[in-house]
Amino acid sequence: MTTLLLDREWQPLVDALREELQEYGGLFNLLDAQQDRIMSRRTDDVLALNGDIEAQTGMVARLRTGREAMVRALGERVGAPRPDRVRDLVPHFPEPVQPLAEALVTDINHMVRRIRQKARQNHLLLSKAVELTEETLRMLQPENFTRTYGRTGKVGLARRPGPTTRYQAVG
Length: 171
Prior knowledge:
Elements: H1 7-39, H2 43-78, H3 98-140, E1 145-149, E2 155-159, H4 166-170
Antiparallel strand pairs: 1-2
Helix pairs in contact: 1-2, 1-3
């Protein structure tokens, strides 16, 4: 026989899932805005968004940690086989609430995949931008760059340090 969760037990978890999903959506929107700024070469705006992205990531992490603690406590209470998974709690929700819990879990997992994909895209775009900038600088000022080999054997570039004082800069 399945132990059913009472309203006062499952409602805070559903609320936590909704809030987590909402904050994941906010993080995705910030990453999307970052990508727009990268593509339009608005570097100052990209840098400004980094702080917002870090803050939003911290918020999502706190919400997730709280939700995971809630899930563990409820999972242990009902004797779920894997008390750390929301999906294993779904059969313990009242039947009318089960589709809602299932949909929230599915939506969160979908958002996490989309966020990872968007973050990976942004990382690649930024890496390519840095690579192109470095290549341009190397063509304009080849005397400031030397080729070196890294630990992996790949060719890298080491930038020669520029003048360190005002007098050295003048000559």
